[in-house]
Amino acid sequence: VDLAHVLLDAAKSPLADPVARLDPDRPPPPDVAEVHAGVRSAIATAIDAVASDRRAQMVLVTGEPGMGKTHQLAWLRARAEGRYLCTDIPPLKDAGAPFTHLARYVVQGLSAAGQLDRVLWDTLRRVAAAVRADADEHGDDDVRDRIDEAIVQGAPFSLAFRTLAQHDADLGRLLYQRGRRLAPLSTLPAEFGRVLCRITDRQAEPAIVDWLRAAELPTDDLELLGIKSGVEGEDRAFEVLRAIALCAPAPLVLCLDQLESTAGLLGTEGVMRLFTALMELYQQAPVCIVLMCQTQQWVELRHDVPLAAVERIAVLPPLTKPTAEEAAAIVASRLEPFWQAAAAEPPYPSWPFSPDFIAGLVATSRPTIRQVLLECEARLGDMRRAGRIVELAQVAGPSGPQHPRATTLPTPVSPPGTDVEWEAALRAAHDRYARGVAERRDLGQPKFRQELLREAILDLLRGAARFRYQVGGVTVTAVSAPRKPKNAPRPPAIVTLTGDGGTCRIAIDVHSDEARFAYHVLERLRAAVDAGAADAAVLVRESDMPLGDGARRSLEIASALAERGGGVVYVDSDSAVRLVGAELLLDAASAAEVLVDGRQASRDEALSFVLDDDGIAESLTSLLAPAIAQPISLAAGG
Amino acid sequence: VLVAIVDLDARLRLGGVVPIPDLRAELRRRGIADDAAVTDALESLERSWLIDLSAAQAPSQVADRRAGIERPGRGLLYYIARR
Questions:
Q1: Residue A407: count of CB within 10 angstroms of its CB
Q2: ipTM metric
Q3: % of chain A residues with pLDDT over 70
């Protein structure tokens, strides 16, 4: 086999470094056993402790950008195989609602992965078993026989139990009445138990998931669940989280990557709120919390984190830079699938990057893992463009002797690129994040990504305000996003625009959930205008979730808002995905993960780029249409 | 230098990451005021794989930039992590 052709003919460069966070449903890049083994072992031990002792654990991993923190999380997900339930929590962006944020993404993550049904049905199956045993003991044959019609013992049969139990819609009510003083129902929050037991009613089942993820349910859905209100407050969101952790048949692992993003956006107070919430969860629910943070940020953050939290977190030693041997193993691990596929046997696993070359690279610049891959990728890219693979024997290092067949390479710093190249690279990064949003199961549905869409729109508008950026001929002068009150729904954000005609304040919110649920958010928008807090109000929805005839009351309010210069603005799915992709790009830039031309793009640079990106500018213009006299697509008028 | 790093980490509970300015201050308290010698020692320890020197991600925001170690291609080395 011609080794060179294996590398030249590959559709994608073997050393391309995909951002693991983008593709949680795909296998992450290869792992190397000897690299960061201590971290893997510490996290595995923490999860085992949760499983065996039902005692919470909190682990913090720090390291420079590009040292493999996100990679570790990707592999933690990939290795779960049912032994634990992994959920990714994006950076917190509303300091007022940490539990709502955690609960939403836990429920959405488990739901998208198809694990939430199992958690709920397995819990109900255990409730049924407890009630049956109690009925048997008390000679209540009717109850025992009714449960026997449905119950299939053993966790693997929880979904078979579902099929049988849903033939008897009222069975859940019976289980609640007879089981609430028995474990496991007696150990769960009362409201959660009541809602859970309604799951035997097929009509109620979807509403349960919506209730758990804190959607604002209409009254008839709440009645179906036998409750009066949704998960609006922080206390209820906490109870949902605690209940899911208690119900989960395997340890629940909450993965919080990019802590520095929360610190950057919400400052010290936001970090304090997040850690206070995590501590409360730690004390009352059997969860494993895995935190990832940049070294520098953690050194600064830890002064602000409550002492009680710092004392309980297992802070692992910072991820160490790769040795020459580790770096060679990492490069080899990326090349190995290509050799295997071609049944080729290179002279050494990292060919054409000799161990001496990699040792020189490591000695010269002490690179992070990402820098090792980028350096090798840059050289391999040059070779692929030239159509010729050249074995690299050695880099000229500060102290090492020159090898006789050495290929002395320029210092591993990329030449400065042009603006055009810079923009093309940022556009490629934005495209990659947008594609990731479209492909991720947990963000693939409009209702699951509506929070990120809201954050994207507000962050971009804030950026426009800071840079005095013109949107459709008007200037965004201020964006005010009130914090969610502890026990009430979040008020709309207010965007202030200034143009030739004066100043206009627009109340804005995003809602891409079921049309039936839009009523409450529209009411709040109308209230903002009625109270004089805004001149007009806009509700942003994805066009795949139109307000149809079934949402009569919502349509009435939308019409009323339209008469006052606002209404419902629809964003098509592609634009929504690009907006959310922009938000992820900004988060990644905050975490120093956006590398362009060999250097990290800052958040401001990424923000400036996306604001200039045509698609984003058009989307923002259409959102602000009421103030800038652009036509808006109203539900009633199509 | 290594002893001072270990002591500082334990005493201030730094979680394994010691800022270089803190180390320099500690060494001055112990009678070692030659910053260049400390820089040489740190680089030697790194070459011996006893420590990693980590760059500040936001050099403009660090407390004492001049006490770090500027290295072209690596940035402002500002933190020490023991291996």
A1: 15
A2: 0.86
A3: 91
